Amino acid sequence: MNSPSFSLTTLLLACGGGAPATPLDCSVNPEVCDTGVGVTWTAERELTPGIPLGASVSSIDVGDLAASGTPQIYLGTGDSVTRLDGEGWAANTVIWQGGSIGYPLLADLTGDGLLDLAIDLPDSDHGAGQVVVFPGPVAGLVDWDTPHVELKGSGGPWFSYYPHGSYLSAADLNADGVEDLVVGPWVRYGPVTTDTPFDPATDTLVRATSGTVVWASSAADDLTGDGVGDLVLLGGTLFSDPCYTPQFAWGDVRIFPGPVSRGEVSVEDAPVRLAVDGVGLLPILPWAADVDGDADLDLVTVGYDLSLERVEAQLFLGPLTSEAAASSRFAIPVAVPDGVADLDGDDVPDLLVGGAALLSGPLSDLPGTETSTCAVRVDERWGAVDSPIPAYTQASWIGDLDGDGLADALLASDQELSIVLGE
Predict the structure, then answer these.
(1) Burial class (CB in 10 A: 0-12, 13-18, 19+), 80
(2) Are 302 and 283 in contact (CB under 8 A)?
(3) At 398, is the pLDDT very low, low, confident or very high (cuts 50, 70, 90)?
(4) In three state form, how does the secondary structure of the chain look?
(5) Among 46, 164, 271, 331, which residue's CB has the most CB atoms within a 10 Å radius?
(6) Of 137, 3, 143, which Cα lies nearest the Cα of 71?
(7) What's the Rg (C-alpha) of the chain?
(8) Is residue 30 reached through a cis peptide bond, with omega within 30 degrees of 0 on the bond before it?
(9) What are 356-382's pLDDT values in tens digits?
(10) Going by C-beta distance under 8 Å and a sequence separation of 6 or more, which residues neighbour residue 30?
(11) Which residues contact residue 54 at a Cβ distance below 8 angstroms, ignoring those fewer than 6 apart?
């Protein structure tokens, strides 16, 4: 799976409607903590001072786009893409400027074995949206005069809240050995080499149905155990209650197993649907990792309420099949997770939360249901222990940055980037 990290977008839903005959409790979190939320930990890890950026970061991706032999860090910062490289990744260069930018993606979309740079421009082309692909290697600055491929028409009335083209990912979804591009409701099959608008006759277009909200889409490595990448959709079924309109059954993950067919498909026809408990929580894209050591990818889903007073995770053990049930459900310490990887060197994936708290694996050993948000235990506390755990980082990335085989973490907040190397 090749996808950059993305920032959390807070969605504002009002407690609306006419005044009810009897007063209603519109709180999403009925649990009251007399002494506040208590977070305890058994170990601490100091963070080195962050790299100042001078801009807020919406996404992070990492790779050797310049074909220099050393990976670079690429940041989506508002209307630009910034590259960090050099010693300690301290050299800061804006390589693309202009236009409304979603998230840059590094992936081999042209099929030549080199990383390419894809940038989505959801508001360009009079709101129709497009994705621009610069074939690699890309060592310098890029602009409209740099050789590139334009994929127009990535927008349309599909998501209810996220703009089209605001999240890019790539994986081989049709088993031809070339990575395919997922953007909003579209799958463009690689190699991507020509200026061809998105078209359901040659691409895949996922249609939402009445009463269904699809929040985001992503390409993923094999989740269903058939050896082919899968298309993951995140959303839920709309319904109304006296407090929230709309209301969601959170964590509704729908999967089209690969090979994914071309043409128009309905989200309701997804063969795999993960029904998750918990009403009133908004979902973010899940993470895939082998958390139980059986060589099958598992899925960690996360939902949060609007006040971030309640954040819960659920674990689905792979291979994923139709109507799979969560094996465990547990509360997270008032923060949105950043990702799943082995961050403490024991070869077992862990869950990083808010860039400051680590739940050490195996996550599959967590109790079947542990959803109290008044007392939460974490294994490691990162950063200053006398400050509150951040509700969420602006953007994060987890992977092997320095090539030592250990997972590292990049955490962006307050216009600076912290690099946490695995140990």
Answers:
(1) middle
(2) yes
(3) very high
(4) CECCCCCCCCCCCCECCCCCCCCCCCCCCCCCCCCCCEEEEEEEECCCCCEECCCCCCEEEEECCCCCCCCEEEEEECCEEEEEECHHHCEEEEEEECCCCCCCEEECCCCCCCCEEEEEECCCCCCCCEEEEECCCCCCCCCCCCCCEEEECCCCCCCCCCCCCCCEEEECCCCCCCCEEEECCEEECCCCCCCCCCCCCCCEEEECCCCEEEEEEEEECCCCCCCCCEEEEEEEEEECCCCECCEEECCEEEEECCCCCCEEEEHHHCCEEECCCCECCEEEEEEEECCCCCCCCEEEEEEECCCCCCEEEEEECCCCCCCCCCCEEEECCCCCEEEEECCCCCCCCEEEECCCEEECCCHHHCCCEECCCCEEEEEEEECCCCCCCCCCCCEEEEECCCCCCCCEEEEEECCEEEEECCC
(5) 164
(6) 137
(7) 21
(8) no
(9) 888 888 888 766 555 555 666 678 888
(10) none
(11) 92, 415
**pLDDT for 378:** 76
State the pLDDT confidence band at 388, using cuts at 50, 70 and 90: low
Highest mean pLDDT among 204-208, 254-258, 280-284: 254-258
Nearest C-alpha neighbor of 410 from the set 79, 57, 116? 57
Token pair listed for 270: 């997804």
Tokens of 121: 């421009």
Sheet of strand 395-399, all strands in order from the earlier edge strand to the far edge: 51-52, 416-420, 408-413, 395-399
